[in-house]
Every structure is written in C-alpha cells, then in structure tokens.
Design brief:
It contains five helices and six strands. The protein is of the alpha/beta class. It has a six-stranded mixed beta sheet with strand order 2-1-3-4-5-6, with helices on both faces.
C-alpha cells in the first residue's frame, strides 16, 4: 500500500506540491478539511491511515499528553528561508523511513531529525 500523507493547514503549500511532484499521495487539510480542529485532523489522519505532516507543535501535546494513538506525526521546524532544505529533508526522511514512521513522532529541522516512538 502506498504511503499516504495528510498535510495540516499549517504546512506551506509549496511543500505539498513538492511532495506530490515526488510521487507521494498527499491529502491537504487546506483543500479538503479547511477549518477542522486539531482533534478532527487527527481523526482524518487515522481514518485515511496517513502520516500527519504539520508545523503546529500542538500535535505533540495530542500524541504525548493526551496519548492519542494510531497516527504518526512529522513536525517541521524551520525558518522561511530554509523552505527548500526542509522540503528536501522531509522528502529524504519519507524515502528512507516511509511507513515505519507510523506510530512515531518525528521532528525535522534543517540540520537535525529526531524520531521518537509514541507511548
């Protein structure tokens, strides 16, 4: 089964386009679920069996403090002038780890990637 990705509203749309151009199946909250709460975005990610890519740190609270299960989250942390580098880092992470990111919380910075198992 191909890897599915749900891009939160916070994700720069140029990243969505770049991932699509790399062949990934991307659902974008901005296109299909605009205005959904974080909880509802997590429900969509689970129901679609998609990794959630976001720039919103609140999803860390959902998966760690609220112990939300059944979803993998990739949090992007970068400055606007690092957009190309973060997009490349994300694409490389997806190419290398793909579906193994399910049930994990990954934080991507331009020079560092941290992957944690979810409780």
């Amino acid at each position: 089964m191909p890897l599915k990705i749900l891009a939160d509203e916070s994700v720069d749309y140029r990243i969505v386009k770049a991932l699509r151009n790399s062949g990934y199946e991307i659902l974008a909250v901005l296109e299909n679920y605009q205005g959904f709460s974080d909880k509802d975005v997590l429900k969509v990610a689970k129901s679609k069996e998609a990794l959630l890519v976001t720039e919103d740190k609140d999803f860390g609270e959902w998966v760690f403090a609220h112990k939300e299960k059944g979803v993998g989250v990739i949090l992007l942390r970068y400055q606007l002038n690092e957009l190309k580098q973060i997009t490349d880092s994300l694409t490389n992470l997806l190419n290398k780890h793909g579906e193994s990111l399910t049930q994990k919380f990954a934080v991507i910075k331009v020079k560092k990637i941290r992957i944690r198992e979810l409780p």
